[in-house]
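User: Continuing from earlier, I have the next pair ready.

Assistant: Great, send them over.

User: Here they are, in order.

Assistant: Folding the first of the pair now:
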Amino acid sequence: MPSHRPSFILGVSLTTMVFFAHFVALRGAPVKPDFPPDLGSTVLNHSMSLVQRMEGLLAAGNGSDVTLRVLAVDTDEVKVIQAHSLVLTMQSPVFEELLLVRNGSAVVLREASDCAAVFDKFIRYLYCGDVSVRLDQAIALHKLASKYRVRSLQEGLSQYMSQHLSSDSPAGHAVSWYNYALLTGDAALRDSCLQYLSWNLSSVLRSQEWLSVGEDLLLSLLRRSDLVLQTELELYEAVEAWAESNGPAGETARAALRSLRYGMIPPRHLFRLQRQSALLQTHYESVRDLLYLAFQFHSASPVTLAKYFEVNCSIFTPRNYLSPSWGSPWIIGNPTRDDRSFSFQTQLGPSGHDASKRVTWNSLFSPRWMPAGARSNYGEMGAMQPTRTDGGRPRVIVTPATSSPDFAGVSFQKTLLVMARQQGKIVVRHVYNFHQSTEEAGDFLEGADLQRRVSEYLIDSSLYLHVVIKPLYHTLLVAKK
């Protein structure tokens, strides 16, 4: 039955000069240097014609001097491919070694069934420099590219997988591709998967993919402060669902529970979890100290707590929470037009002592803001008066509308999430951390062409942002009497 899944053409052009330079060099003939350019010179590019001829050469098997017999492991299936040793050895050092020690014209290759199924695609890439890839074929082709050390195809597939982490699939792709990258040592793909899961965790928690997360990946995620999710309570409930589905060993369950940030969960929910959470009741003794510290955190003022406890630790550090208590979405239509301002409110801090206190924030977006080093002066409002210039880059400034004695012992880290549409889904594309202005980040929207209506940074011609405010408490140094 034919597949209707979307495919993708992965290509690395194989030009006429490159191929025949290799061809001639292998036969010992000198390669003539290029003629110096002159006013009448031009380039005649017939590389597509060469690719078509190479494809025809593979299909017909004309001049073939090696037969590849591809055996699918644990099956009787055999795939026979008439190939040319020159092409194979030029593209793959592994094939070069195999062909040096072969007996006769046939080479027997044993491959896993998924790899055997796409082996003809893999060989075609060696001849033509491009390959049509479906999502369900990516890992098999990557395995072949890794095994036969075809670096260009390996890197291209890693990039393709990194760009399609949000593609629709009942079980998702990010977790399975992360596990594969970990197994093969592909650090770039591993990091891309981990970043995608971290920055889009709230949507992952609501999918079937969450229950397929392995123990090591779970603990790696729980240790991160850049997780993007609604609240810490949402994360606790997801960990509980994961534990019910996977039945982890006690040591893993306790490590997961100790990685949650109970200080970020309001007391009313902590009380409910102690009574209703089977996972917490089973391992209560392992987190008793953390719960006790969280209740102390919520009952005392942060200034008082900071005199006696180290508050610069993970239990008191917010993640990137999407809840209205911690920030606000901000959609900027036609972002290159002019400066935009926006106001919103957040809770002063995660402590129960600050639960009823609000901070009003003023945000300014400037599409053309001159870097600080190029400015001559500031206005009365300081950074809220940017110097605009046609050559500047976009910037966002976030400052409190007023000052307050309640700010003592608290600093505010701002996090700006930039959304994008990928494979039909809105996902977090970038995360920027700063204290007052994105100019501190240095690379805010670097390379983004917001003038283009089809810019990958825009959704329906608008820039989709989400501003997150993260209050951080500071330990106070108290002199001994």
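And the other member of the pair:
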Amino acid sequence: MALRGALSAAGRRWAQQRLCCTARGDTIFAVSSGHGRCGVAVIRTSGPGSRGALRSLTGRPELPPPRVLALRRIRDPATAEPLDRGLVVWFPGRLPGLRPAEPGEFTRRAFHRGKLDLTAAEGLGDLIHAETEAQRRQALRQMEGELGRLYQRWSETLTQALAHLEAYIDFSEDDNVEEEVLSQVDAAVRALEQELGAHLQDGRRGELLRGGVRAVIAGPPNVGKSSLLNLLCRRPAAIVSPVAGTTRDVVEVSLNVTGYPVVLSDTAGLRDATDPVEREGVSRARDRLQRADLVLAVLDATAVPAEPAGLGAAVGSLVPPAAPCILVLNKADLLGGDTGALRAACARGPPVPPATLLSCKTGDGIDRLLELLGQQLAQLCGDPLAGSPSLTQSRHSQHLGDCAAALARYGRHRARDLGLAAEQLRLARRHLGRITGHVGAEDVLDIIFRDFCVGK
């Protein structure tokens, strides 16, 4: 038997204490809704003592109908003191032969029964772990099968091309297959190669959205990099000190910025350090810069030239070439009202990246920075609901790259050996099938006999 009740936090604490004392033998209980402060909790009991526990807690000899929620007053069995009101439900007995499901077992069974492919299963996992709205949208789209349908369409194109090519190889001498079949296969392979190449060259949008954009705060010492990190995450995540070189290691936090996931790193000030510990910190900062998806280049607004060429050169000394960047001119509060020249220089565009004046001390300029950050994230991750679904897994990229390589080899073998060319189509199709989990040979035979009716 099992008992489930929806109790307040106070009622849950009491039930934990009382049921712990009365649980004997095979009767067990647990808080099923997790721990922590909350307005409602679910407590579950299981075993032969559940019936008596339900009667004691509700103070009523009759039980509610099986598998029907009932509202009951929860009381202390010893004193009859009312504790709370909650919903109770009981399930008399258990079916034999049942066991708890393994993690992911329901999804695995759905895959084996053909109810979803591997990409949809991966989308379900991403949906469970989604932390931002954009991640949720992308995961839901993949879970609903859009990515799987795209790969399935490509697989069907390859299956048909392979079937036609093999039919030509086997039966062209009997005049059952026209020569123009080869031209159709070539055209289909070229079109698929172009479409697949465009899919691979999407700037890793789906992977960035799934795993988070790696944004690095970089700049010289004592320009306010750690203050900027604390301002963006709204807590003292990094130590702030007027002493230059305080940050020696990488401080990393995860943020949700306008629905996009960001992994933000504060790094050591970039300079020729003499202290060995600081030197290691600078080395780690430069390494993070090389791997960054986005750089927040922080400079002291009181110590930079107020003209575009000078600002562009200052940024270029910090940021790797072609890396997406936002220039943050901190300590704007020290400029007083004399900000016109800097604002004009920031608004000129290249060689100055998108820029804003900011005061981490007062917070002035933070809205503009968040606006620029949101624009950059939208460019990097794209709209998860627009266009074709994006790549989300490195596993997909690897198999699609292998598929593209096989299609390229098809073109090289096509003029010399049709058998080798057919093998490349077979390999390309196999790599697509490994993404979705559907790899078979019967489909090729089906198309051969459907389209050509060989042997009639």
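Worth noting for the second one:
The first helix runs from residue 9 to 22. The first strand starts at residue 2 and ends at 7.
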